[in-house]
TrEMBL record:
It is found in: Cell inner membrane. One of its GO terms (biological process) is proteolysis. It is an enzyme of class 3 (hydrolase). One of its GO terms (cellular component) is plasma membrane. Keywords: Aspartyl protease, Cell inner membrane, Cell membrane, Hydrolase, Membrane, Protease, Transmembrane, Transmembrane helix. It holds the Pfam family Peptidase_A8. This protein specifically catalyzes the removal of signal peptides from prolipoproteins. It is a multi-pass membrane protein. The chain crosses the membrane at residues 57-78, 90-114, 159-182. PANTHER family: LIPOPROTEIN SIGNAL PEPTIDASE. The gene is lspA. This is Lipoprotein signal peptidase. The lineage of its organism: Bacteria, Pseudomonadati, Bacteroidota, Bacteroidia, Bacteroidales.
Amino acid sequence: MSITKKSILLIFLVLFIDQAAKIYVKLHFTIGDHVDIFSWFQIYFIENNGMAFGMEILSKLFLTLFRIVAVVLLAFYIRNLIRKNFKTGFILTVSLVLAGAAGNIIDCLFYGVLFSESSFASVASFLPDGGGYAPMFYGKVVDMLYFPLIRSAEGQTLFFSPIFNIADSAISVAVVVILLFYRKELNESLESKKDKNVEPIE
């Protein structure tokens, strides 16, 4: 299988898993509803307007447009990496970043149109009669992965408190892998190409 096909397959696999998890939680959980998987891991449904791990910077429309531009640039970047025969592992890791960014874009673009509002009292419905809870570009990102690894005697989470999703995980894991194993490739891919064949002017 060519590296192009591997990259596309990985992106679509991550998108499928991410969206399947989000849609299931959206249609079966109320806001704040949670299920204990282990003592240190819960499925805990929240939504956010911001970037990864619930951060909010600038306006919602700006964030959505920023994500779209980032995904387009990443797609061109990956195409360049493939053309220049960079390591397969590096290309697939960058593809993970693209998949994660695209996963959250889908929420922002379409969830407001496709679903009714989730609340603490009611579960959302798909394609509600009265229309969705927000216009296109203004959907909320669904988060559900919660790892309260260390808690106080009172049950308060001391570490790790962010609630995130599979798309966020793909981005975070990819960034860590790049920093640990592919810094050289990253630097090489970002360097400006120098024309070594230019004759000096006499």
